[in-house]
Amino acid sequence: MVLHSKHLLGLDGIPQKDIITILDTAKSFREVLDRPIKRLPTLQGKTVVNLFYEPSTRTRISFELAEKRLSADIVSFSASNSSVKKGETLIDTVKNIEAMKIDMVVVRHSSPGVAHLLARVLTSHIINGGDGGHEHPTQALLDMFTIRQKLGNLQGKTIALVGDISHSRVAMSNIYGLKKVGARVLVCGPSTLIPREIEKLGIEVYYNIDEIIPQVDVLNILRLQLERQREALFPSLREYHNYFGITRERLEGATKPILIMHPGPMNRGIEISSDVADSDHSVILEQVTNGVAVRMAVLYLLAGGRSETH
Which amino acids are annotated catalytic? Predict the structure, then answer.
């Protein structure tokens, strides 16, 4: 099995078949993670560079674990400890790294479009680990994998993305991916945090959280991206929680069990209450585990998908 593209830059434009291939492959790798010996020789001899220009905990560790589980050689790059501090440009940095004969680059950057730029100037496989407010494809894929794992399929399911849609790369990748596999997608949040004309992507827009709770199978609760907001877009965190926070009391309006998701890191007591985050309906920690399997699948498929997963 291989993907149609040499890179994973985003889910906008990716064929539905590739999404299904990644999710199916991740199922095999998820089983590997439950074994006593979790390492496979799949990427032995391949070198992966983790090029992180932006702080990260979950995504970085998840990729590093996925690479180690597949026996790849790993080089982790941090902009704060590099020649970037001496004025070296991004292009010069990556071309120098590629000259050391690498195979793949996982890039995370605060500027939208960086992964696409690297795909134009490098011959290595590029995986977008998050670029500004643009996309975060592997997060959306692990979200989709988790939903399919819990609910059996994605087609026809109603998934709501709640919160800071305007500044969320996770939201955009989820919208593109979920629409491709036939899910119904809603977004909900303050009008100041929802992009204008986003409904043109084929989704439904709501501004009242209590209206959507009776309709949905999944609530994917997004973090307020306060570091990306350049002005006050709502009166206070307390008011945001009162109107859009997911609480046990609010979920009493549900007509069926709702799967609770969050890409992390969580702001407990703001976008989600602790009793919801830690409830039986929450799959937040399972998302983290599944993220390793999904990233293993992406690395494996981009490498050619020829080695055995079992």
Answer: 58-59, 86, 108, 136
The encoded tokens of residue 254 equal: 């549900």
Evaluate if pTM is beyond 0.85.
yes
pLDDT the model gives residue 77: 83
Total Cβ atoms within 10 A of residue 40: 19
Q: Is the pLDDT of residue 161 over 80?
A: yes
Structure-token pair, residue 191: 């009008």
Instruction: Tell me how far apart the alpha carbons of residues 127 and 17 are, in angstroms, rounded to a whole number.
Output: 18
What CA–CA distance (Å, rounded) separates 277 from 45? Answer: 41
Could you tell me which of 210, 197, 216, 298 has the C-alpha nearest to residue 258? Answer: 216
Share of the chain above pLDDT 70, in %: 92
Q: Give residue-wise pLDDT tens across range 55-90.
A: 888 999 999 999 999 999 999 887 665 556 566 789
How many Cβ atoms sit within 10 Å of the Cβ of residue 264? Answer: 16
Using one digit for the tens of pLDDT, what is the confidence trace for 184-205? Answer: 999 999 999 999 999 999 999 9
Cβ(264)–Cβ(224) under 8 Å? no
Contacts of 171 (CB under 8 A, 6+ apart): 161, 164, 165, 187, 222
